[in-house]
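re: ur question from yesterday

yeah so i grabbed the chain u mentioned. its 371 aa long if i counted rite. heres the sequnce exactly as i have it in my notes:
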Amino acid sequence: MAVLAVVSLVAGRLLGWGELAGLGVALVCALLVSVLMTAGRPRYGVVLDLADRRVRIGQRAVGRLDVRNAARRRSLPSQVELPVGERTAELAVPSLAPGAVHDELFAIPTDRRAVVVVGPVLSRRGDPLGLARRRLRWTEPYELFVHPEVVALGGANAGLLRDLEGQATRDLSDSDLNFHALRDYVAGDDRRYIHWRTTARTGQLMVKQFEDTRRTLTTVALATATGDYADADEFETAVSVAASIAVQAIRDEREVEVLAGPGRLRTGTPPLLLDDCARVASTAAGAGVALLGRRVVRETPDVSVAFLVTGGVPTDAEVRLGTRHLPAGTRAVVLRCTRGADVAVRTQGSTTLATLGRLEDLPRALRRVAG
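ran it thru and got these C-alpha cells back, copy pasting raw so excuse formatting
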C-alpha cells in the first residue's frame, strides 16, 4: 500500500490526474492511521503456567494463561498469541477493568515423543485492515518434555544386567572382595586382614592381598541413521527400548552410559535421561549400527555389557560389523526392532542378536538373552 501510495502521488502530479493524486493521499492517511492505532503499550500482568513439565506419550497435558489488567484504566480488547510447538493459538482478551483477570485453559498435544516449546506469550495490536501490527512479548518460553514409553524390566534381566561383585582386574590392593594371595606383614598394614591361621603355622605375620574389582559398565548405543529403520514407528520403538534398559540400570544403581545422537545422554536420574530421550531424532547423517561398535570403544572403553539398538533394515553382516570392534570379553547384545516381528534370540560367541516387534516384547527378549 505504501508503494501504491507513492506511485499514485507521483503519477497524479506528473500526469495532472487529480483523482490519482487523491487516491495517493487517501492511502497515505490510511497508513498513518494504522500506525497510530499500534501506538501505546498495554499494561498487562501475564502468567503462563504448565500443570506438568514432564509427561508420557498420550498423557494429558494442560496449561493456563492468566492476563491481568495492571493499568488504572479499563483496557481495550486485544489479541494474544500463544505458540505451542509448531502451532500458534490466537486468544481473544476482552476489555478488562483495572485489576481484572482473564484466564484461558489450553491443551497441549502429546501424541508423539517430542520437546514441545510453549510460549512466549505475545500480545498483538493493529488496525482492522491489517496494515500495521505490533507485538509485545510478555513471558519466556517453556519446554514440555513428552517422554517415550518405557517398560519395567524387573527381574527379567537378573542374569545379565545386575552387578553383584564386579569384575576382577589385574590391580592388587589390600582390601576388596576378591582374595588373591598372602604376603608378609609390613608396618602400617590393617590388622583386620592378618591371616592368623597361616601366621600360626609359619611363625610370622601374614596378611591377605586382594584383586581390585570394578563395577560393570553398561553402555546403551542407539542407531540414529534413518536408513536403519523402515519407518518412524520402528525408530520410536528403538528409542523406547534403549530408554527402558537405561532407566532400569539407573534404578538398579549401576553405571550406565547412553550414546544417542551427537553425544551422551544424561544418566543421573531417570527423568533427566528421559528428557534427553525426548530430543533424540533420526537423521540421514546419523550413526548406523555398523558404526556403533567403534563409537562404544571410543567413548566407553571400559564397557562390560554393550546394548546396540537398531531397526529392522540392517543385515546380519552389518550387525556383525558393528560388534567386531568391541573389546574382548565384552558381552554384546544387539536389539533389532522390526515392526510386526516375533521375538527371536540367537547367540554366537559373546554376541547375542535379539529381534522384537513391540516394546512390550522387551522383557521376554531379555529373559531369553539372560538364559
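noticed a couple things. The longest strand covers residues 61-69. also The radius of gyration is 33 Å.
anyway ttyl
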